[in-house]
Specification:
Elements: H1 13-27, H2 32-39, H3 43-50, H4 58-68, H5 77-86, H6 93-100, E1 105-110, H7 121-134, H8 139-154, E2 163-169, H9 171-174, H10 180-194, E3 199-204, E4 218-222, E5 228-233, E6 238-241, H11 244-260, H12 264-275
Parallel strand pairs: 1-2, 2-3
Antiparallel strand pairs: 1-4, 4-5, 5-6
Helix pairs in contact: 1-5, 2-3, 4-5, 5-8, 7-8, 10-12
Length: 279
């Protein structure tokens, strides 16, 4: 049996596409030859795409969706192709989205803006439009990004939705985005989120000071086999990690942060006060 080349999906968008193709293929118990017959290309071509030696084409991505049954899902190859082509997402994020769609628990920490999974369409549109105005996104990239976000949010309403635990820095609810109406609707949506049976919402108040565990956004996923995935990012790069030695300290810090934060009841009360302009 030939040795499989180890993939490094975080190295580039093309590598992330290749890793996604291998993951989806192997989840169906297919060899490269099996997938090549279904798509109508050589197994050498499948290997080259998986190892990022050849870029996938849009027809290839669409055919892969057709044979794998991934059209309009979180594992959509066409969506990943657009992300790769237009550079809409940070490296590492397409891989993370694939894991997120299968997670049974999602833990988030966010600074500055409401986490994407909890954003109202209007709030998300204003943020994306700001990036278009600054020239960091095209209009097409904005539309594709919002479509991806909507698809990710739909995953929270599946038959067995994941448990979603969210810690937001106080700045997330105080930073005005889109004007009073947009912010009011967003804050009301957060209050409604906190009432769901599969949610926990906590605010990390400014008063935490140096006791706040993280200075950058953090995503932690628990997969069905209870393994864990972390995703962290800077302004320039995202990084997915499944190594228990590096994920465990992040989980520990997250638990410590939760213990320092406001309770969910107190967090909701703060959001209500900010919404009413009384705090």
């Amino acid at each position: 049996m030939a040795n499989l080349k180890e993939l490094q999906p975080e190295s580039s968008p093309r590598a992330a596409f290749g890793a996604q193709l291998r993951r989806v293929r192997e989840s169906r118990g297919w060899k490269q030859e099996d997938l090549s017959e279904r798509i109508g290309c050589s197994s050498q071509h499948i290997s080259a795409v998986e190892t990022a030696r050849k870029p996938p084409t849009l027809p290839f991505a669409r055919k892969a969706d057709q044979v794998c049954g991934t059209t309009n899902t979180a594992d959509s190859f066409e969506r990943s192709w657009h992300e790769m082509r237009h550079g809409m997402l940070l490296e590492g994020f397409p891989e993370y989205v694939g894991y997120e769609a299968r997670a049974v628990e999602i833990r988030l920490f966010q600074i500055g803006v409401v986490p994407g999974l909890l954003q109202t369409p209007e709030y998300a549109r204003v943020l994306a439009s700001g990036r278009v105005h600054r020239g960091s996104l095209t209009q097409q990239q904005e539309d594709e990004g919002l479509a991806l976000l909507a698809s990710r949010q739909e995953g929270l309403t599946r038959e067995s939705p994941p448990m979603l635990l969210v810690v937001m820095d106080e700045s997330c609810i105080r930073r005005p985005v889109g004007g009073p109406e947009v912010m009011d609707a967003q804050l009301r949506s957060l209050i409604e989120f906190a009432q769901k049976s599969n949610s926990v919402l906590q605010i990390a108040p400014y008063a935490l000071g140096e006791r706040r565990a993280f200075d950058l956004p953090v995503n932690l996923l628990t997969l069905p086999d209870r393994s864990m995935v972390s995703y962290t990012e800077s302004h320039a790069q995202g990084f997915v990690d499944r190594e228990i030695a590096s994920v465990t300290p992040i989980l520990t810090a997250y638990h410590q942060l939760q213990a320092e934060c406001l309770s969910q009841a107190d967090s909701v009360a703060m959001i209500e006060q900010v919404r009413k302009g009384t705090l």
